[in-house]
Amino acid sequence: MLRFPRCTALLTLLMTLGLTLGAASPLAAKPLRLVTDPETLDLIDEIAQPLVAAAGLPKDSVRYYVVLNPTLNAFALADQRIVFHSGLLAMARNRDELAAVIAHELAHLAAGHHIKLKSDLRRASIQSLITMAAGLAAGLASGNSKAVQAGMVGGQAAARSGLLAAMRQKESQADQLAVNYMGGAHYDPHGVSSFMDLLNREQRMSVKPPAYLVTHPLGQERLSAAEDLVAHAPATTVRPDHQSERLLRARAKLMAGTASDPNAMANHFVELLKQGRYTATDPERFAWRYGHALALLYAGRLLEALEEFNGLLKEAPDDLYILRHRGLTYLEMGDAKRARRDLRRALAQRPDHPDLRLRLAQALKADGEPEEAARMLRRLTLEHPDEADPFYVLGVIEGQQGRLGASHLALARYYALLLQRKNARWHYQQALQKLPEKDPARALIKAELKELKEKE
């Protein structure tokens, strides 16, 4: 049977959702764009691992996601998931400030600051969960009882005032735990007060406070309390900072990825390179060149992007992240063979990464090897059943190869993950019509279709 992603019946308190109060959520209004390449997520995971251990959470139990959104925001979801807006990553000035945000959200998870979701929302793709979280936060903020009751259980939907009143207490608790986790992980605890001070200055300079501050309220009392916590934190030996260069690269990538005008952003990177007095090995110079290449790619200036990626790979020939982007550039240009070459080189360094496997499968399909692509995607969907996109690509390939029953089944699972139940049900029914009577997949389809109907 298809194992829908096991998102428990818990969603974190409103303050860990961190979404703008009193206004429609930007996440609810626009389709979500998740960062799926390994680079930014690997950086977050690497910084987070010592904090997870300090929080007493099981290793590899927390998953991290980045939404391409320029606003400053972060929140935790049930089932040990933390979501960052790209704007927050762009604002963090160093590793320890980013670590402080991660520590704070881990504290909410470890402290169990939760409210319950209705059972029919327990299983969904991460995109659907984030969108639902946005709707819940907006409903709580605006008093829209229909929006709240769509996702929350029973009397908790009416407890808006109680939830909002609990914010300051929960935030203070999370602040204290974050300082403890920072010290236990051998990060500089001053990252907590430093990031709060940055937020406080942003708040003073803006008519409308950052979304993170609305549901992570930051008054002077809380800021002073955090500074006091840091001042009295036990001394710790701070671990060497190996993430500074990678944070610069992640910031450049996010600048390119969130730009409304990629051409203007490409020009911006050129100006940054002209203004700086960089040595040949300066990490900031490399980061701005990387951002320039990505902006060119997003602007559709493929030959120029390819030239920039080639130059970067001369300096870092085995960099899997640049190999991935050059491979995707080749794929956009219709050169599937070169795309396969680069993506295989990248995948050799991270053989279990879902995104790299999906991208290689797409390159294989484009290069006239759909059967190998289908085999790769079948394994991928079995190992990562909560990833929606591989089901869609698999469904397309199966259909093109004439396996219509398998195609409809993959597409049914894709739409089920997106909570588009009408589409999912239609594809399940088509799969039953197309598959032979003795096909063992029919029993799985009937079970999944029954589960789907129970949620309507």
Automatic annotation (TrEMBL):
<protein>
    <submittedName>
        <fullName>Putative peptidase M48, Ste24p</fullName>
    </submittedName>
</protein>
<dbReference type="GO" id="GO:0004222">
    <property type="term" value="F:metalloendopeptidase activity"/>
</dbReference>
<keyword id="KW-0862">Zinc</keyword>
<dbReference type="GO" id="GO:0046872">
    <property type="term" value="F:metal ion binding"/>
</dbReference>
<keyword id="KW-0732">Signal</keyword>
<dbReference type="InterPro" id="IPR019734">
    <property type="entry name" value="TPR_rpt"/>
</dbReference>
<dbReference type="InterPro" id="IPR001915">
    <property type="entry name" value="Peptidase_M48"/>
</dbReference>
<dbReference type="Pfam" id="PF01435">
    <property type="entry name" value="Peptidase_M48"/>
</dbReference>
<feature type="repeat" description="TPR">
    <location>
        <begin position="320"/>
        <end position="353"/>
    </location>
</feature>
<dbReference type="GO" id="GO:0051603">
    <property type="term" value="P:proteolysis involved in protein catabolic process"/>
</dbReference>
<dbReference type="InterPro" id="IPR011990">
    <property type="entry name" value="TPR-like_helical_dom_sf"/>
</dbReference>
<feature type="signal peptide">
    <location>
        <begin position="1"/>
        <end position="23"/>
    </location>
</feature>
<feature type="domain" description="Peptidase M48">
    <location>
        <begin position="44"/>
        <end position="228"/>
    </location>
</feature>
<dbReference type="GO" id="GO:0016020">
    <property type="term" value="C:membrane"/>
</dbReference>
<keyword id="KW-0482">Metalloprotease</keyword>
<dbReference type="Pfam" id="PF14559">
    <property type="entry name" value="TPR_19"/>
</dbReference>
<keyword id="KW-0802">TPR repeat</keyword>
<keyword id="KW-0378">Hydrolase</keyword>
<keyword id="KW-0645">Protease</keyword>
<dbReference type="InterPro" id="IPR051156">
    <property type="entry name" value="Mito/Outer_Membr_Metalloprot"/>
</dbReference>
<keyword id="KW-0479">Metal-binding</keyword>
